Amino acid sequence: MNWWETVRTAIEALSSRRLRSALTMLGILIGITAVMLSVGLGEGARVSITNQINSLGANLLTVSPGATGRSAAFAAGR
Questions:
Q1: Is 43 within a domain?
Q2: Is the model's pTM score more than 0.70?
Q3: Is residue 65 part of a domain?
Q4: Alpha-carbon dihedral of residues 41, 46, 48, 53, nearest 10 degrees?
Q5: Is residue 68 part of a domain?
Q6: 3-class secondary structure per residue, the chain
Q7: Which domain holds residue 22?
Q8: pLDDT tens, position by position, 10-41
Q9: Neighbour tally for 21: CB within 10 Å
Q10: Contact criterion met (CB below 8 Å) for 21 and 14
Q11: Cα(27)–Cα(19) distance, rounded to whole angstroms?
Q12: Range 56-78 average pLDDT
């Protein structure tokens, strides 16, 4: 079986089952569109959140878990 015979067989199969071929192409298009929209929305959300965090400025108070020094004794109830 050569390459041209394979192509001819594929075209015959597609033309004999038009509805199945159309539904398959529609499913592929819907799948590709869904993936593109998901990636686009995720990237847009990432950019939006990054811009919101960057707009807060550099004078932020950083809070880390744990306690040291005098506040540790106060937190322990002493």
A1: yes
A2: no
A3: no
A4: 160
A5: no
A6: CCHHHHHHHHHHHHHHCHHHHHHHHHHHHHHHHHHHHHHHHHHHHHHHHHHHHHHCCCCCCCCCCCCCCHHHHHHCCC
A7: 1-50
A8: 899 888 989 999 999 999 999 999 999 999 99
A9: 13
A10: yes
A11: 12
A12: 65
Which residue, chain included where needed, has tokens 């799948």?
31
**Residue 12 to residue 6: CA distance in whole angstroms:** 10
Q: How far is CA 38 from the centre of its chain?
A: 5
Is 64 inside any structural domain? no
User: Rounded to the nearest 10 degrees, how much is the dihedral formed by the CA atoms of 19, 22, 26, 32?
Assistant: 140
| Number of separate domains in the chain | 1
The type of residue at 38 is S
State residue 76's pLDDT score.
55
Tokens at 12, concatenated: 């015959």
Chain centre distance of CA 12 = 38
